[in-house]
């Protein structure tokens, strides 16, 4: 019995010893594997860090634009500074001539139109009494009215002179004499009305006022009849700007104090504050079928502004303080995003994305992307953009996207 217990004890001790050795060997192997993995992980991390740093060193968003290039294109840079900016309601409108400042030139004879100056067109300045066109019917079947009037007058004049002698000798009756005198007076009036304007080339049609041609209603070589409009002349001393504003802005209209407008024919932005402009009125509705409210300003026509033209209008409301804004000329747009170019140093520039707010036609509010002290390119933007596009890119990179 004792021998059996001793044998079992020996076997148990041997089994326990073997298990401990196996466990220690397994731990050593695991430790070695873990140590190797850590080493590989460390090496991989070091390699990544090296490559990343190398990659960053090959990428730069700085644009090289030399001082000589900047001087050549007249580059201008403005330093960003928060300031006052007026809230804006953008809409459309029309330039109108003030009442009493227009005159219509009409033909005083039938015939073919010939412009005295072929370059006379909308916007051309004219003087009072200046010949705009001549009208001639010399080569028409019906004959020249001016010549006819002159012949009728001369014939009536001779007949009247003869009648004056005959009435003295009682050869003709007083009634007949009065008929002859009446025909003479009528012919004389018609002739004198045209005599001053009759030339060898036809009847001169002149402008009754000084101003600018607003509308040219006939062309060279057109046939016109007596009383037909030829052109409209506007003095353009004072013009009106009529803006159509959505009813949604009705409560804001009481705060409107000024406006800027932009023409389509020269894209110039005019400021009413520079044109002695003032608000005349704003109505409750422009018509029974309209959902727009008319807002009317009056201003001096200092620039080349054409009455009747349609314009984009920027109504200026309450000013906002501490607003960052940039001139419209500083902005570029690519795929729906807006950018400006910042000057980093004398010959270094950077393309900067910005988020825009309201525009008054001259400047645009910048909501994000700029801070006070930034130097923004306001003239020469296109040349800086070209310099960025033509820059040499790192290997493996392109603008093909």
TrEMBL record:
Taxonomic superkingdom:
Bacteria
GO biological process entries: copper ion export; plasma membrane copper ion transport
GO cellular component terms, alphabetically, are: cell envelope; membrane
Q: What is its main location?
A: other
Gene Ontology molecular function: transmembrane transporter activity
Per its UniProt record, what SUPFAM superfamilies does this chain match?
Answer: HlyD-like secretion proteins
The membrane spanning regions, by residue number, are none
What Gene3D superfamilies is this protein classified in? 2.40.420.20, 2.40.50.100, Helix hairpin bin
Q: Where in the cell is it found?
A: Cell envelope
Start and end residues of each stretch annotated as Disordered? 24-60
Which positions fall inside the Multidrug resistance protein MdtA-like barrel-sandwich hybrid domain?
A: 103-233
Q: What are the protein's UniProt keywords?
A: Transport
Residues in Multidrug resistance protein MdtA-like C-terminal permuted SH3 domain copies: 322-381
Q: Which PANTHER family match?
A: CATION EFFLUX SYSTEM PROTEIN CUSB, SLR6042 PROTEIN
NCBIfam families in the record? RND_mfp
Say which family it is in: Belongs to the membrane fusion protein (MFP) (TC 8.A.1) family.
Q: What is this protein called?
A: RND family efflux transporter, MFP subunit
Q: Which organism is it from?
A: Parabacteroides chartae
């Amino acid at each position: 019995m004792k021998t059996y217990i001793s044998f079992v004890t020996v076997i148990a001790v041997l089994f326990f010893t073997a298990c401990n050795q196996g466990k220690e060997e397994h731990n050593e192997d695991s430790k070695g594997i873990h140590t190797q993995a850590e080493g590989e992980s460390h090496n991989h991390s070091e390699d990544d860090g090296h490559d990343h740093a190398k990659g960053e060193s090959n990428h730069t968003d700085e644009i090289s634009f030399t001082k000589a290039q900047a001087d050549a294109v007249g580059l201008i840079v403005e330093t960003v500074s928060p300031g006052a900016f007026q809230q804006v309601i953008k809409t459309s409108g029309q330039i109108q001539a003030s009442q009493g400042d227009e005159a219509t030139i009409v033909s005083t004879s039938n015939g073919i139109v010939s412009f005295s100056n072929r370059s006379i067109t909308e916007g051309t300045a004219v003087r009072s009494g200046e010949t705009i066109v001549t009208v001639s019917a010399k080569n028409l079947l019906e004959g020249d009215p001016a010549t006819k009037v002159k012949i009728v007058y001369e014939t009536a004049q001779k007949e009247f002179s003869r009648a004056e002698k005959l009435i003295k000798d009682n050869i003709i009756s007083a009634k007949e004499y009065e008929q002859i005198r009446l025909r003479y007076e009528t012919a004389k009036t018609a002739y004198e009305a045209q005599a001053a304007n009759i030339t060898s080339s036809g009847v001169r049609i002149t402008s009754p006022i000084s101003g600018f041609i607003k509308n040219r209603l006939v062309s060279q070589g057109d046939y016109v009849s007596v009383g037909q409009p030829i052109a409209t002349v506007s003095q353009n001393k004072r013009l009106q700007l009529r803006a159509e504003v959505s009813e949604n802005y009705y409560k804001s209209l009481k705060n409107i104090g000024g406006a800027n407008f932009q023409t389509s024919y020269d894209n110039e932005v005019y400021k009413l504050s520079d044109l002695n402009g003032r608000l005349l009125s704003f109505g409750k509705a422009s018509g029974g079928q309209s959902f727009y409210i008319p807002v009317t300003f009056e201003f001096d026509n200092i620039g080349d502004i054409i009455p009747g033209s349609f314009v984009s209008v920027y109504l200026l409301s309450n000013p906002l303080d501490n607003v960052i804004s940039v001139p419209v000329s500083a902005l570029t747009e690519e795929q729906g995003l807006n950018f400006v170019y910042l000057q980093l140093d004398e010959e270094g520039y950077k393309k900067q994305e910005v988020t825009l707010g309201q525009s008054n036609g001259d400047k645009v509010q910048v909501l994000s992307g700029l801070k006070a002290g930034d130097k923004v390119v306001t003239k020469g933007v296109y040349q800086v953009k070209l310099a960025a596009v033509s820059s040499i890119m790192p290997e493996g990179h392109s603008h093909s996207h």
